[in-house]
């Protein structure tokens, strides 16, 4: 490899302006495939969910899945698109072993949904991402390369094909080019995919699991000198986590800036993102539309969704995430900054469920963004995978509010809940964590502390109330931390005044 100037990210975005674009594939959660009645369940034995249609056997004829068309229209409506009153499926011709028909049924110049947008928020600012089109197609099968160390075709001794996925309805959502993002391009790309995932999850048309491949993202990136025409773009394929979306854009900006700084040219090509190294590597040179020899699919009737049907679907759309967040923020009485930290932590739904379970919004936020976020961070776990349910958090706060435990004990109780010892109430009982609320026992501990610290007691008697802290500490120590510090303080001051 020839040596290329290695710029820092800051140098790259100071010298060049990025233009990004995102193509996202979403596998729909329909019960059956796009053009046949085969089931779509994930994880079945290979090649058990196939039939003559999705295997491309001679003479088999496709029939379009109404539920998939409906889901696509709903996605289009949620993304503020116009729904085409008429359109046809098209054949995209190419050979690939995981595609038994040697063509894919897709949509070409007559997509179902066009010209919409999705607003995403970055640091309290709204960025509008234009949506070029949303179209419906069928997924391909899956190739498995066996015998090599990497699972890639190079070095494999044999390759196997599983056609269970062939023909599963796939929606492709293509943004318009997004210029003007500057140094925030990677962040904005990630925010867009996050928001899109949340919208689709809200519509309940896909489980949008990036790690299982039911949502996959291709990221287009190009660079130009300020004021110059847009540069040649590359397409980084199948980026399969939110974090990778951000890293892929960032690394591609750095790479292209290095090439351009050396006077080189960017080649229009497909690249692959590598999780381990965080960079992209050249794949194949990019085909153009003419290579695919698109033509209208002759085996399917045109799509002509009735205006009344579209209006019905639009009226029945659920509350979308952005609107929901605004409503919750006002119900919870959070400032913009409070809410932003909740969104950034991915805790909106957790807090919402905790409030529904009876906690106040402020206490729910305190636990999820405080102690629980800290533990998630320490163990590199997601908040919702910690093993603590919103109901447990609400119960914990209830115990604090009732004076049964204090904040410090509550953290110990959480430890027990995370360790799988049961609900907060069960952990309190099993570990004997309930605070000492028995007046007699507390009074004795207070008297002992005063007797053991006569100098401090004298100071408090003289009006130096701040000195009482040392006595409170002594009582807390004597009770193993199981006293309510505020009550103890009151008792001490009452005793010494
Ligand atoms: Zn089938």
TrEMBL record:
Signal peptide: none
All residue ranges annotated as the Asn/Gln amidotransferase domain in the record: 349-496
UniProt KW keywords: ATP-binding, Ligase, Nucleotide-binding, Protein biosynthesis
Any matching Pfam family: GatB_N
Reaction equation(s) it catalyzes: L-glutamyl-tRNA(Gln) + L-glutamine + ATP + H2O = L-glutaminyl-tRNA(Gln) + L-glutamate + ADP + phosphate + H(+); L-aspartyl-tRNA(Asn) + L-glutamine + ATP + H2O = L-asparaginyl-tRNA(Asn) + L-glutamate + ADP + phosphate + 2 H(+)
Superkingdom of the organism of origin: Bacteria
InterPro entries assigned to the protein according to its UniProt record, in alphabetical order: Asn/Gln-tRNA_amidoTrfase_suB/E, Asn/Gln-tRNA_Trfase_suB/E_cat, Asn/Gln_amidotransferase, Asn/Gln_tRNA_amidoTrase-B-like, GatB, GatB_Yqey_C_2, Gln-tRNA_amidoTrfase_suB_CS, Gln_synth/guanido_kin_cat_dom
Cross-referenced SMART domains: GatB_Yqey
Gene3D superfamilies found in the cross-reference section: 1.10.10.410
UniProt enzyme class: ligase
Enzyme Commission numbers on file: 6.3.5.-
Assigned protein family: Belongs to the GatB/GatE family. GatB subfamily.
Complex formation: Heterotrimer of A, B and C subunits.
Record HAMAP family: GatB (MF_00121)
Functional note: Allows the formation of correctly charged Asn-tRNA(Asn) or Gln-tRNA(Gln) through the transamidation of misacylated Asp-tRNA(Asn) or Glu-tRNA(Gln) in organisms which lack either or both of asparaginyl-tRNA or glutaminyl-tRNA synthetases. The reaction takes place in the presence of glutamine and ATP through an activated phospho-Asp-tRNA(Asn) or phospho-Glu-tRNA(Gln).
Protein name from the UniProt record: Aspartyl/glutamyl-tRNA(Asn/Gln) amidotransferase subunit B
Species the sequence originates in: Dactylosporangium vinaceum
Gene: gatB
């Amino acid at each position: 490899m020839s040596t290329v100037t290695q710029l820092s990210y800051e140098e790259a975005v100071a010298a060049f302006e990025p233009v990004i674009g995102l193509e996202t594939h979403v596998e729909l959660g329909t019960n059956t495939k796009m053009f046949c009645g085969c089931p779509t369940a994930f994880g079945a034995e290979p090649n058990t969910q196939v039939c003559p249609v999705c295997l491309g056997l001679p003479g088999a004829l496709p029939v379009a899945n109404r539920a998939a068309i409906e889901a696509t229209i709903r996605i289009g409506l949620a993304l503020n698109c116009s729904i085409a009153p008429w359109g046809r499926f098209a054949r995209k011709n190419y050979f690939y072993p995981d595609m038994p028909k040697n063509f894919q049924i897709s949509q070409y110049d007559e997509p179902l949904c066009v010209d919409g947008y999705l607003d995403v928020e970055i640091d309290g600012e709204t960025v509008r991402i234009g949506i070029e089109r949303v179209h419906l197609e069928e997924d391909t099968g899956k190739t498995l390369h066996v015998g090599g160390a990497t699972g890639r075709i190079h070095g494999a001794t044999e390759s196997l094909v599983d056609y269970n996925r062939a023909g599963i309805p796939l929606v492709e959502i293509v943004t318009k080019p997004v210029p003007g993002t500057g140094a925030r391009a990677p962040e904005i790309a990630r925010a867009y995919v996050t928001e899109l995932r949340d919208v689709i999850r809200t519509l309940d048309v896909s489980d949008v699991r990036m790690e299982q491949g039911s949502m996959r993202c291709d990221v287009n990136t190009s660079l130009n000198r300020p004021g110059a025409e847009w540069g040649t773009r590359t397409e980084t394929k199948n980026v399969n986590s939110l974090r990778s979306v951000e890293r892929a854009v960032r690394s591609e900006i750095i790479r292209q800036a290095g090439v351009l700084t050396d006077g080189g040219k960017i080649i229009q090509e497909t690249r692959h993102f590598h999780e381990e190294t965080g960079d992209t590597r050249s794949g194949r040179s990019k085909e153009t539309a003419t290579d695919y020899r698109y033509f209208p699919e002759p085996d399917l009737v045109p799509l002509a969704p009735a205006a009344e049907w579209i209006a019905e679907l639009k009226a029945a759309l659920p509350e979308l995430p952005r609107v929901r967040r605004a409503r919750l923020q006002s119900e919870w009485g959070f400032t913009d900054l409070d809410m932003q930290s909740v969104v950034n932590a991915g805790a909106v739904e957790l807090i919402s469920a905790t409030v529904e379970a009876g906690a106040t919004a402020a206490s729910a936020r305190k636990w999820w963004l405080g102690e629980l976020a800290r533990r998630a961070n320490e163990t590199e776990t997601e908040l919702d995978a910690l093993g603590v349910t919103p109901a447990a958090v609400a119960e914990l706060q209830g115990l604090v509010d009732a004076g049964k435990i204090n904040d410090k004990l509550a953290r110990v109780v959480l430890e027990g809940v995370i360790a799988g010892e049961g609900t907060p109430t069960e952990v309190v009982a099993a570990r004997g964590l309930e605070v000492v609320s028995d007046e007699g026992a507390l009074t004795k501990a207070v008297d002992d502390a005063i007797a053991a610290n006569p100098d401090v007691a004298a100071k408090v008697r003289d009006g130096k109330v701040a000195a009482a802290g040392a006595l409170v500490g002594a009582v807390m120590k004597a009770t193993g931390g199981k006293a309510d510090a505020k009550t103890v303080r009151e008792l001490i001051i009452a005793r010494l005044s």
